[in-house]
Design brief:
The structure is a homodimer.
Chain A (H helix, E strand, L loop, with lengths): L3 E7 L12 E7 L7 E10 L3 H5 L20 E8 L9 E4 L6 E5 L4 E2 L15 H14 L6 E5 L4 H12 L3 E6 L2 H9 L5 E4 L6 H11 L4 E5 L4 H7 L3 E9 L16 H10 L3 E4 L9 H14 L6 E5 L4 H9 L6 E5 L2
Parallel strand pairs in A: 8-9, 8-11, 9-10, 11-12, 14-15
Antiparallel strand pairs in A: 1-2, 3-4, 3-6, 4-5, 5-7
Chain lengths: ~350, ~350
């Protein structure tokens, strides 16, 4: 057993795409183990796109990594020393190990991996990425047999799981991936019905044409992993009442497309703040109109709910009133009263 | 009773903001009434922002108005001739009359207005706008006492109703409106807790500062009526798990801010297609992880769900593997295995 611990640190904050100089490699003594904790020799740890966000100074949904801190990661390893009830030397455990040879884990934050499956699966297909796919698809994708799902980064661990779960639920699954190899992988290994190579298309509109061919019935679920060109290509293909779970915006992690493009700011905020954004058209809900009248008309009659009308007299004056309303010239509900 | 009908038509499609020449005024004989229909003398009709969208050739959620067709509108009027069961001469009815002195309504599409309230309320506070506010707030806003709601076009018929319903539900309500008069109206007549005049601020960031002062606890519900500068100002103020019902994007109805700004296309599509877009972070859902393992681990063990790993050997090679992954250099789940 080595008495030294090696770790990768954040040496400085990257500008745009990270470069090797942004990382440091440090060696030091093994950490102390307190009651309720265990020392683990890491066997394998995970690299995930979300880690790019942690390298920025800005707080996202999680605290930023500080300069000099170990890069964050989930990992799996074997217990060397345990001062935690329920964990013994030799146990395989998963937890937030960081990019490091050793880690001290609290018992409350460690999970014993004793189901017979390879420990590495605890980081991918059965770890955070697989769980993300399973949760987001049922909760926010709400798949129905016969629908069409599009997903980019389709051969990544989230994409591969979303595709397989959706296919099993009876959906047509369409992968977007970078390069012919990944497209073949998507179709052959992960069972996607079609795969579109985004590198073969320079702009959103040509990518959109290729996607439209792969989605003859439109798109019901767009699982958002990337943002950028794919988002722009897919949105016009969405069917009414479609769903867009936003899981990542990797195209925008290292910077945005320019000051004039406000979409990255809005879209990334929707992810990090976990917003629910719903377009709705009242004509879809018209069946509830009598319930509304029953509840609200008495409140209008009593004055509990007040209103204001902005009345224009004469049909011939309607265009002018309409033009004025569009620029905010009205005060209250705009109406035209006929002579 | 006049034997002539007057109507306002779409003379040509507007470019940007409509001008009077885009409309025509036509007079002709009264229309015929078939079985199941009634002829109505219109007393008052409604002007609403959504009508701007109908003037474009592009299909939105409703068919475009054709050149020469009567401009669409809901209206209220008195029955002159009825060939419809349940409706008699002299009844007051509401329906889709258009911008016109007379209309033929089908019984199935007409509603008798006999509740004693002024007929004009059928078009505003108790009509489509009020019903929109009532439905969208409960279904997509999901207000909770103590939260903060922001709404633009706050003195319009939708805004005024949303504000009053939210206030009654115990929320802090913050109006955005154009000009000091409308801000005073929002506070004094409709009971908003605060009102911000968007015309007093040139850009989104100065408007945001004013809104931040009016919303000391952040924003939980942003009711979207306008898009544009207000949207850009509000999004960074949203609290986690906030809700954004998209009801309109009037700032973008007459055109967008330039080719480089993709936000209007995406945001308007979310409205017209009634999309549900949800940002989510898996760490909020971690309580379900064991359920996931119970369901999915056996499928991984059996091979029903397949996976692929992209393993880099050696801690010191983690930065390079991470950089490569961010540009799509990996195939499958990216992992680092320690020696």
């Amino acid at each position: 057993m080595s008495d030294q611990m090696t770790r990768i640190t954040l040496a400085r904050r990257p500008e745009g795409t990270p470069v090797p100089e942004d990382f440091g490699l440090e060696t030091g003594p093994l950490p102390e183990v307190a009651d309720g904790e265990m020392l683990v020799a890491v066997e394998v740890f995970s690299l995930d796109p979300y880690m790019r966000g942690r390298m920025n100074a800005v707080k996202s949904y999680a605290a930023a990594t500080e300069i000099g801190d170990t890069m964050t990661a989930q990992g799996v390893g074997r217990v060397l020393v345990s001062k935690a009830e329920g964990f013994a030397e030799g146990d395989m455990v998963m937890g937030t190990t960081g990019w490091a040879s050793h880690a001290v884990l609290k018992a409350t934050e460690a999970l014993k991996w004793d189901n017979g499956l390879p420990p590495s699966t605890a980081l991918g297909v059965l770890g955070m990425p697989g769980f993300t796919a399973w949760t987001g698809l049922r909760e926010y994708g709400r798949p129905k047999a016969g629908e069409t799902l599009v997903i980019a980064a389709a051969t990544g661990p989230v994409g591969a799981m979303v595709g397989q779960l959706a296919k099993a639920a009876g959906l047509r699954t369409v992968a977007v991936a970078g390069g012919a190899d990944k497209c073949a992988l998507a179709r052959e290994k992960f069972g996607f019905d079609a795969a579109v190579d985004h590198r073969a298309y320079d702009d959103a509109s040509s990518l959109r044409k290729a996607l439209a061919e792969a989605c003859p019935d439109g798109v019901d679920i767009y699982w958002e992993n990337v943002g950028g060109k794919v988002l722009e290509a897919v949105i016009p293909l969405m069917n009414d009442h479609g769903r867009v779970p936003i899981c990542g915006t990797i195209a925008w992690y290292s910077g945005v497309d320019g000051d004039t493009d406000r979409l990255p700011m809005v879209w990334r905020s929707m992810l990090t703040k976990r917003l629910s954004v719903n377009g709705f058209i009242i004509f879809d809900h018209w069946g509830g109109y009598r319930d509304f009248l029953t509840e609200v008309a008495p409140k209008v009659a009593s004055g509990e709910i007040t209103y204001l009308e902005d009345v224009t007299e004469g049909l011939e004056n309607a265009p002018e009133a309409f033009i004025s309303m569009l620029s905010g010239g009205n005060m209250g509900k705009t109406l035209v009263r006929l002579a």
